[in-house]
Write a structure and sequence with these properties.
Length: 87
């Protein structure tokens, strides 16, 4: 169970960094991280970090699918962490 929690923490950290990097690239008009890649990392365990990064960096917040989707993924993954902690 600790391995799963560590995995979720690592993926969330990675997603958070991806949101920061994509925001910087957007501001600099540089090459962007494809939305599919942001979704993939969020879906495979980085939902919490993706949501926190989105809110902190105000990145992709005008996209309803990102606001709702990342929030739902974060809730599911946070629930999984709570369940792991209760075991």
């Amino acid at each position: 169970m600790i391995i799963l929690a560590a995995y979720l923490a690592a993926m969330s950290s990675f997603a958070f960094i991806m949101m920061w990097a994509d925001k910087r690239q957007a501001q600099a008009r540089g090459p962007r991280i494809p939305e599919k890649r942001l979704w993939l990392v969020a879906a495979i365990g980085g939902g919490i970090g993706a949501y926190l990064g989105m809110m902190l960096f105000r990145h992709k917040t005008k996209h309803t699918n990102f606001r709702i989707g990342f929030f739902v993924l974060a809730l599911i993954q946070a629930s999984l962490l709570v369940w792991i902690a209760s075991q």
